[in-house]
Amino acid sequence: MPATLADLPSGHQATLHSVEGERAYRRRLLELGFVPGTSVRLVRRVEVGDVLEVELRHSRVSLRISEARAISLEPNERVQVSAEPATTGPSSCASATPESASCHGGPSAPTPAEPAS
């Protein structure tokens, strides 16, 4: 049986195997990106309130430890990542122009026409 997200040490990452629990809970986690095969990293544990901060798909999500026990993981091969996020260069969105595609990969929204005088 794979380990659960609640068992993952801080700073380590693993691959999500499955999500157990009630249907509404599973659906909500799937909506948040907890899809089997996704890489997840435990950023930190907050002992007050028994909360975990998890990073997946460039987002961070907080879960109760009791909820994290329903998420099964497949361990990655001894990968440990720093708890601090890496700083990156300027955003590609900063260089987007109205004539180019939007920063999210799709065409940019048309600009409204100016009224005739």
What does this structure look like?
- The structure is a single chain.
- The longest helix has 9 residues, at 23-31.
- Mean pLDDT is 75; it is low at 79-111.
- It contains two helices and five strands.
- It has helices at 23-31, 65-68; strands at residues 12-19, 39-46, 51-56, 59-64, 71-80.
- Helix content is 11%, strand content 32%.
- It has a five-stranded antiparallel beta sheet.
- It has a domain at 5-77: Ferrous iron transport protein A (FeoA) (SH3 type barrels).
- By secondary structure, it is mostly beta strands.
- A hairpin with a 2-residue loop joins strand 3 (51-56) and strand 4.
Placed side by side, the strands forming the largest sheet appear as 4-3-2-1-5
Number of helices: 2
CATH superfamily of the domain at 5-77: Ferrous iron transport protein A (FeoA)
* Secondary structure: helix percent: 10-25%
CATH architecture of the domain at 5-77: Roll
DSSP strand content? 25-35%
SSE succession: EHEEEHE
Structural class: mainly beta
Shape: globular
CATH topology term of the domain at 5-77? SH3 type barrels
* Low-confidence runs: 79-111
Number of strands: 5
**Ends distance:** 72 Å
Query: Gyration radius, to the nearest Å?
Result: 19 Å
> Tell me, what is the CATH class of the domain at 5-77?
Mainly Beta
List strands and helices in order, with pairings.
Blueprint: E1 12-19, H1 23-31, E2 39-46, E3 51-56, E4 59-64, H2 65-68, E5 71-80
Antiparallel strand pairs: 1-2, 1-5, 2-3, 3-4
